[in-house]
Amino acid sequence: MIKALICDDELATRTIISYFLEKEKMPIELVGYAKNGEEAIRLIEEFQPQLIFLDLQMPKLTGFQVIEQMVQEKRAKVIIVTAFASFQNARQALQFGVCDILPKPIELEQLRKAITRAVGWNFTTNETMNQMLEYIHTHYKENFELETLTKLTYCTENHLSRLFKKHMGLSIKAYVHQLRIQEACRLFDSQRCDIRETAFQVGYSSMNNFYKYFKRYTGKTPAQYLKAGKKM
User: What residues does the Response regulatory domain cover (predicted)?
Assistant: First the structure.
């Protein structure tokens, strides 16, 4: 389950987010509610949430002040919730690396899309699938085996393989390779790493495997991809 915290001084906002999360049976555990910025900082320290819904206009400490402290410590994914009157201010928060801006009044579809963008994967109606997706997106850079997922879900390997293929249209291993190559492309686009360092960072100890899967999913070798990016 993804641990989440709602930080908003308006009861109506806290209530509607909680209601939607429960109604949609999202794999999210609400660990607390903060009514002001100081309380938000305290609860973040206490619960270490992975996802935070944060209003910018709160008493004691503003949402901006909370974000500044979180950015320094690189914590959690943040979704800004804001009234239309302060939407321009919310856009400034994007400079601090928040994931999304959710205007009030909050609508279910907007909430669902914001959460998906924040966590990086789509929820399904199947609890076991959500468990697998959460684990894979957290650990895809590691060298884990299918056996790890069987221990997590208490299901057999065959059952998990069939279930994953049914919901995602591809195998677990193929999905992991896709995630790794997507992250490699992101690193290349940001010009942060060279080819060998990128391969290692996304989970490949073998350069041959990295080249093979990169070509399979992008149609280019890493060198060709980098060269094409420089021309843009």
Answer: 3-119
What does the alpha-carbon distance between residue 54 and residue 34 come to, in Å, rounded to a whole number?
A: 9
Structure confidence at residue 57 (pLDDT)? 85
Distance, CA of 111 to CA of 102 (rounded, Å): 7
Three-state DSSP state, 223: helix
Structural domain count, the chain: 2
Range of the structural domain that residue 111 is part of: 2-119
Distance CA 48, CA 157 (A): 32
Q: What are the helix (H) ranges across the chain? A: 11-23, 37-47, 63-73, 87-93, 108-119, 127-139, 146-153, 157-168, 172-190, 195-201, 207-218, 222-231
The reply to whether 89 and 107 lie within a common domain is yes
Mean pLDDT by 10 residues, the chain (232 residues): 92 93 85 94 91 90 83 73 68 74 87 86 82 90 88 92 92 94 91 87 95 95 85 45
Do 106 and 16 belong together in one domain?
A: yes
Predicted pLDDT of residue 196: 93
